[in-house]
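User: Could you go from structure to sequence for me? I need the amino acid at each position, not a summary. Structure tokens:
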């Protein structure tokens, strides 16, 4: 194993431990997500892993290096970073090379080359001459990850990298972390409050509680530990992609995406009760998705979808008309039929959606 924590315990006071007997391992290229409520000790655990704080008992090591020497192989990205100084992006990323320089030396060409590559890896090379205090929160967070990469770490640690970011930038940050961990074979540890992010990103998860912890090594173990329906792995990914592509003003929440099939079916049946259209053919059916593969067994998951079809209006026109009403549905076209999933609809929107469909139906006359 590349990184190991064995029987590790820590507390600021000896008789009041924050956590005890923590054990986990991490290989190169793997991502570990640490989850738990506020105040449980997630950031403190990261400080112990980095060597900033000493374990009360237990040990951690990278390959053959023990706790005291780990910090030289680790890069850290803090949460919610802000800067008051007008460093350029290039200068900020070059700070990641500081551990390779003596006190009075200047960056060499090789340091600039590494910093440039880090910026390109993060897709922000075009920002290199901008000042950091002129960037958006998402851009600055990408700069901080680039600075960490410039240090050429063996272990990358990120403290809530998606905090204070909008939904779009959260996805960009998480996708970039996952891609770079695999491409550069870097082990990553991150804190997060989002179960959906852990499911999407992590190979392993450490769930911290007040008196105990759960180490989940596979996604099926994680979904059981979090009590999350596995349909999330399909629905959430599709929703994120649609959001990035279409820039929806409103998107389905995590709670909506994890509705049970029986709840979805009841909602769909209630929607259709006494509802007919003259020119649009509207029908309900079950829709099946396959989820799994790798560490997770493949399963067939079902939801309830509504299909709209018209002889007079194209499927593209129907979708555009629905979106003109700012209805936040995730719709798709199949054989010139419009299909949308009841997981993506709020109950209070049903009445408005019916009015919109009646209006669209009237355009066929």
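Assistant: Here is the amino acid at each position, in order:
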């Amino acid at each position: 194993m590349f990184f190991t924590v064995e029987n590790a315990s820590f507390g600021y006071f000896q008789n009041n431990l924050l956590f005890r007997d923590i054990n986990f391992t991490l290989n190169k290229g793997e991502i570990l997500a640490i989850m738990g409520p506020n105040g449980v000790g997630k950031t403190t655990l990261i400080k112990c892993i980095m060597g900033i704080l000493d374990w009360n008992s237990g040990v951690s090591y990278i390959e053959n290096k023990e706790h005291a020497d780990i910090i030289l192989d680790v890069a850290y990205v803090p949460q919610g970073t802000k800067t008051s100084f007008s460093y350029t992006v290039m200068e900020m990323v070059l700070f990641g090379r500081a551990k390779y320089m003596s006190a009075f030396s200047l960056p060499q060409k090789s340091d600039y080359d590494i910093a440039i590559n880090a910026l390109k890896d993060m897709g922000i090379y075009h920002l290199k001459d901008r000042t950091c205090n002129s960037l958006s929160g998402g851009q600055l967070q990408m700069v901080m990850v680039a600075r960490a990469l410039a240090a050429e770490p063996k272990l990358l640690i990120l403290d809530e990298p998606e905090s204070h970011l909008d939904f779009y930038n959260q996805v960009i940050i998480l996708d970039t972390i996952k891609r770079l961990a695999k491409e550069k074979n870097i082990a990553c540890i991150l804190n997060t409050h989002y179960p959906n992010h852990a499911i999407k990103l992590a190979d392993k998860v450490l769930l911290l509680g007040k008196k105990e912890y759960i180490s989940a090594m596979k996604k099926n173990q994680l979904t059981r530990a979090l009590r999350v329906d596995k349909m999330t792995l399909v629905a959430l990914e599709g929703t994120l992609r649609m959001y990035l592509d279409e820039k929806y003003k409103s998107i389905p929440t995590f709670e909506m995406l994890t509705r049970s099939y029986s709840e979805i079916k009841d909602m769909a049946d209630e929607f259709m009760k006494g509802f007919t259209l003259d020119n649009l053919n509207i029908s309900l059916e079950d829709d099946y998705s396959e989820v799994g593969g790798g560490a997770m067994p493949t399963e067939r998951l079902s939801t309830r979808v509504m299909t709209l079809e018209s002889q007079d209006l194209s499927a593209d026109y129907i979708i555009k008309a629905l979106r003109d009403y700012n209805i936040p549905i995730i719709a798709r076209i199949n054989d010139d039929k419009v299909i949308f999933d009841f997981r993506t609809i709020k109950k209070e929107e049903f009445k408005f959606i019916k009015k919109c469909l009646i209006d669209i139906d009237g355009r066929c006359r």
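One structural detail worth keeping in mind: The longest strand covers residues 296-310.
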